[in-house]
Each structure stands twice: as structure tokens, then as C-alpha cells.
Amino acid sequence: FYSIEDQHGYRCPWNVWPQSRMDLMKNGIPLSILYTPTKKIENLLRVQYPAVRCMKCSAVLNPYCAIDFNQKQFACAYCQMVQQLPASYREISDQRKPAELHQAYRTMEYELPQQQPEQRVVIFVVDICVDEEELEKIKASLLLALDVLPADTKIGLITFGTTVNVHELEFEICPRKVVLRGTIDLPPLQIDQYLGIKSPTQKFILPVQQCKDTLTQMIEDLHVDLWSVQEKHRPFRSTGVAMSVAASMVHCFQASAVAQHKNPTAQIALLVSGPCTAGPGQLVDTDISQHVRHWPDIQNGTEVAKYCKDTTKFYSKLAERACEANCSVNVFSCATDQVGLFELQQLVKQTGGTMMISESFAYQAFVKTWRLYLEQQSDSEAVIMQQGASNFTVSCSQNVKVQGIIGPVNSIKSNSALVGQPEIGAGGTDKWQMCQLDSDVTLCCVFDLPDQKDLAAHRCVQFRTEYTEQFSGKRIMRVTNVAFKVENNENINGFITGFDQEAAACVIARMSTLRFGQVFLTEEVLRGVDRTIIKISRQFCKFVPNDPQSVKFTPNYEFFPQFLYHFRRSDLIQLFGQSPDETTSKHYQLNRQTVSNMLSMLQPALLAYTVQNTDGEPVFLDSQECTQDRILLMDSFFNLLVWSGSTVAAWRNAGYHLMPEYANVKQLIEAPTNEIEEILKARYPSPRFDYADQGTSQARILLARVNPASTHKGGSGQGEIVATDDVSLQQFLDALKKTIVMVEK
Q1: Sign of the dihedral through C-alpha 408, 414, 419, 424
Q2: What's 2-113+394-408+419-498's CATH class?
Q3: pLDDT in tens, 403-436
Q4: Which CATH number fits domain 507-740: 1.10.10.10, 3.40.20.10, 3.30.450.40, 3.30.43.10?
Q5: Half-sphere exposure of residue 104, counting CA atoms within 13 Å on the CB side?
Q6: Tell me, what's the pLDDT at 116?
């Protein structure tokens, strides 16, 4: 499974497919593929000749097509249409095949003719309802962007508070800005009338090289919103109108550029520090006695959540406008209160942007994330590569339907025969738009089968991703072909061999968060997860009815219940002590990250360092591992925690690591540093990073995620005692085994 992911960029829960929908329903996990469209693949073949396309379904010639070398014809593997090969293929034979007919090149790329040069546009939307210290950090971040972004990148600047200010980036005597009311949403046509974005002489969106000096001065002169704030009231903050103006500017600029035979791709970077309190997109009233909505308010529809429905609808319409302009939206939320990510999520999700949360613009999580965001725009050697606007298309064998994609995509509705029902995620089509695509974005494609058994020996799926390389400007089409062996459900060994438990756990997690977004009830989602575990366990475990001790898990299934046990306890599902904004941000990352990153969210990785072993070794996520003489490094993707046992903490506090005779203590304390640097270098968005000693308040981050083998009610007594009412992993497995062997009446 790992080699397939490295060579082709996909993982599948089921690498052997059943014959019909009835057989599929017995297995409990949907047919799905986790695919990373622009994954970095070593020695990936790229050719400069045009791809041979099927005239009926547009699929690309591939190793699964039947080739008649005498007649120079091929039968499409997806629609079975027989057609002639182009004249350039007249010399091919069984011994002289082009690259696309070799199994080794099931994934390859074609260079496409670039019809229009691509322009990059970045609009900064900045909240100025902040204190002076936070504003200084925002200024430093914007000035860094001017230094890092390529000189030909076109940028714009909008600041907002009580009003929305659109700044002219070039002036002769004094700076000028257009001030708009923060309570009225103006349509794009009216915004263009005020700003003249379509005019060749407009000064609101200009290349960095043309306006860097004046814009630097404008940023340095930014000040906190001058409108007075009543005592015990929040400031008027018109986030919704500011985002609408930014989307309208991009929409007008895109229309003007296309008329000039140019193809802009845009990004909106929102730096926000509090909830919207005025105009469209309002989240809460200014009266500070009214708290921002929490999960009970949303679940029960209380008065506190009265703006939730209208605000969500407003941002959904804004998402459509942004997608029309090939514009992605990136939200950098730095506030101690919620800013409305729950309502705003559709805008980020459909455009494929970034969503991150921190408490301050001075915190490491924002500073590191912002730097990585800028590096994606400017560094061709960045760890996470970002590409321009992309289109994603799926082709399937006959009788296989596409139900949808769970991931950051925008559905381009179509009446294709490949569309399946019911829709899952972004469905109703076989083509999707991605306004922003990086090398970590992973899509979960869900498929359906016919009611009647299909006796075909194999089923094929083809992914085609057309994208523009960020720095070369080349238009590329990556083609990946996947073939699945088809088995009857009676041959259970075939399904067991092809079962990928890691991919299966990730798919269930995505399906669960999708379900949560519909019902907002943890209990309902947990019941669905439990039903899935029980159903699939009965299929894949050997047992004697009514004998729990007889249950034996197959080797490629034994960790699957463990993954879902930790998922059930994670803050991806549990809402206690977590705001809707935090949950939304974590769900969004789960639905766009790679399999390895998703597994870290489900079951955090834990490394142990001791005096005898300073290289670090993986250990079980268990409270018994929390001993006094070691350092633990926990990586849950969102949190990075270095936990020191009480003995190690005492050594450090006594200064032993500073004494030459205790060089081994110094080596132990510094041991996690290299691993931390590697994680922070590649993780986007950057995680929250903390140190904690055994028994301190920050240690709860680790104790909340480990298996509570020892609790205040009892247990082995080894390691750390966890005060919780949760069942341990062993108790969970015992209950699962009892349910598996239970004979249904």
C-alpha cells in the first residue's frame, strides 16, 4: 500500500471490489479512493506530445485499453468504444509501445498547450479593530509579504472596522482610499463603478514591483479603527462586507483580464481578530453581555445563534462568486474569541483555501503558518508546493458511479451518466474545480455499484488533473489509472488481502465528519462509527458464536478498531470544551490532508526519549508510557507537545544539563529538537507547540489523548493515573468482541 501511494498517490480501503451494491453494503465501508492529485512523485514521467483521448468519454489512453496493433485501433477501458489511433501511432507494436501503455506509467503527466498566460493576484483583507500591539504584528506580516512575494504578483489592500477601506496603491501627493459603509453589501457591478477595476488606469490592484514603496509606507501608517467603542460593547467589525468587496474586486479584475486574453488566479488572505458585529455576515451583537454562539446554541437553535443561518447562506453565495473568479480564500484567525469560521467554512472549502486558528498574531502558530503560506507563492523548492487553478475529472468503468468527493473542491454540476445517487460531499458531477491546490491536498472519491452482479474481472478508474505550475506557467495534465480486481463476497480471503486498514479508518473519519455537519450530534455520529466497526469485524474476524475469547483479528485488520477507538475519543468528534470554530477548523484539515496526517489526527504519534535511547522510539499511545524518567513527544497534527517526566523535569530545574559531567542529561533534554524542527518545517498550517512537565496543567493535552490504562477507578497502576470515566482500549475491545460473537435473533 505504501509503495502504491509513493508511485501513484492513492490509497484505497478496498483494493479488491465486490460484484454488486448488495455485497458492498455487507462490508460497511464505502468504495472509495484517497487520491493526492499533485503529490510529489520521484521520477514521474512527463511527456510533451498530446494525450490520445476517447472521443466518447474523454478518457486518456492507458494500459487497460485493448489495443489492436494490426488495425491500429483501441477499445476504451471505460466506455468500450472502439476507435482509431492517431497517425503518429502507426509504428507501434507489441514490442514498441508508447509510455502510456506500460503498467509502470499508470501515473504520468502531459504538457498541454498554454492558451493564456496566468497572472497571480493576492488581496489582503485586514482587520483593524485590534489593539496597537496586535496591529504592529499585522504590519510586520504584511511587510514580510511584500519582501517575499514575486515582483510580478498583483496585490490589493482592504482594511475594515466600522467601515471598509479600499486603498489605492499608487499616488502622487497623498494616499487615497475609497470608504464604503460596513452595513451594506454592494453587488460587483456597483463596486466596479466605484473603483473602476476594469479600467486600465485603476490603482487598486497593481504588481508588487510597481507599488512596493508606496504600499510599504501605507502599511507602516496603518492605525487602529478610529470609531469609538461603547463601554461593555464589542467594536463594529464589518468582516462580511469586506470579504464581499474583495470577492467583487477579484471578479471584476478577472473579467477584465480575460477580455485581454489573460488568465488570472487570485487569492484572498483574511487576517481577522474577532467576530463580525455589523452588516451581512454578522455573528453576534455588539453588547458584550451576549456571548458568541456555542454548540448547545447551534444544536438547540437558541436566540444566541439567531444570525447563524443567514450568515452561512451569505458566505455560501460569496463562495459561488469566488469560484467564478478562480479565487481561493485563506482565513488566518488570531483571536481569543470566535470569529465565525463555522459559518464561513463553505467559502474556504469550495475555494480550497487555508483555515487556521491562533490566539494572537504574535504566536508561533500564525507566524510559521504565514511564512509557509508566502513560501508557497514564491519558492519553487518549498516543502509544500502550491499550484494554480485546477480541474479534476473522474472516469469509471461501465456500471460504476461517482457519488461525490469529500474534500476542498467545487462541484461543476453535470448530467453525466457516471453520476451516482445519493450524493456524498460535493456530488452530482464527474468534474470538479479547485481554485487552489497544493501537494498535500487529498481527495476522498466515493463510488457506487449496480444492483445486479457484474461479472467483469476488473473495474477501472481514471483521474485527470489539469493544473498550472506555479513558477513555470506550464499547463499540465496528470493522469492516474487504477484497476481493481472483482471478487465474489464468498471469497472472503480476497477481500482480507486487499483491505487497507489505515485508509479505511481515514475514510470512516471523513464520512463521520460529513455526517456531523448534517446533524451536529456527537451521539448520532458515534452510533454510525460503532455500527461500522461491528459490521466489518463480523466479516473479517474468525470467531465461535457466543465465545468472545475465540475472536481473532486478521493481521491487516488488528489495528483498525484501535484507530477508531482513538477517533471516538478525539476532539474531531467530542465537543466538550471546544468551540464551533475550533471543530470546524479541525474537520476542514481532516478533509484535505494526506493519509499519514489524517492518522496523526485520529491516533497521535508518540515518541519516547530516555537516557539510554536519545534517538527516540515509537511507543503505544498509552498512559503506561508516561513514566518519570523519560521525555515524550506527542504529535496530533494540531498540537505538538514535549512532555517531561517528573524526574527529568527535576534534573532540568536543578541545572544538571548545564554541568559537563551530566552530558547525557543535556543530550536527553535536547533530543526531541531535531524531530520538532522537521515537523514544523513541513506542517501546514503550523501546529500549536507546547512544553509540559508531569503534573502541570499543560500535561492535560497528552492525558486527554492517551489510552487510560490506569484511572482513579483502578488499572495497572503503571505510568500516569488518568482521571476519566472513559473506557480503556482493552475494555473497548472486550465489548466489541462480545458484540461480534452475539448471535442475532
Answers
A1: positive
A2: mainly beta
A3: 999 999 999 988 888 899 889 999 999 999 999 9
A4: 3.40.20.10
A5: 7
A6: 65
